[in-house]
Amino acid sequence: MENFTPFQSLLGGLLIGAASAAMLVLNGRIAGISGITGGVLRMSRGETLWRALFVLGLVGGGAVYHALAPEAFTNTLDRSWGALIVAGLLVGFGTQMGNGCTSGHGICGLSRMSPRSLVAVVTFMTFAALTVFLVGSVFGGAL
Amino acid sequence: MSPVGKYLSALVTGLLFAFGLALSGMTQPSKVVGFFDFSQGLQSWDPSLAFVMGGGMLVYMPVYRLVQRRKRPLFEERFRLPSRRDIDARLLLGSALFGIGWGLAGFCPGPALTSVGAGSREAIVLVASMLTGMWLFQRLEALRATRGKEVTR
Question: What's the total number of domains in chain B?
């Protein structure tokens, strides 16, 4: 477990939890990234600006963090542009179809003991693991 | 009730969320893939992802319990929380497709958007494609909805 970062990951998780909890207490919404982002594209009245601002906060936060600690964004995976495009399409289409991703179903949904979220998390974790296994065993870790 | 509070809190929670993701290591796709990779045995397994989710739930769970006693959030008229409990094919298929994409590139939506801010070219390509995928599903859904109306008419 040479790459395991228990303290940073737990601390980061607590911060993510705090941000999600703030979204609930202040705005009464689930902090689901795919749901909030997908809602920007729907452009329905009164539902666009707060969503766009949240996404802006996410992107802006990445820019600020990168200025302080660029190593937090190291990507050592060997993936072609084609693989990234296919992955993006699947993530976008899948999260809209399944109503959520790691944040909404994962952190919020599991905390709320939602049966739908539990099923979603088990499903996407299983398929992620199968994909990682296939990429590793069939394609030798690069794609 | 001030709309400024609603908009400011959306911006700040997004910012905090991004800091949490970057600190947690989840903006490094190899750490996500490392969680799902048991091919080299336990020695190279990276359990970090479980600690991130655990940390998030550690805060969210008690806050959610407390919030249930409140009538409304601070900056909105009412809570808007999902109430469905049924398991349908859409949930299963959608989550499976997402899982494949997640495992393929090591990016789920949050870390991908955060990494766009960091200028990652991989993330920019993936997010452009992710938004296209989201849009495609929404168009398909709208198309099915109008077709359904024609049939009932």
Answer: 1
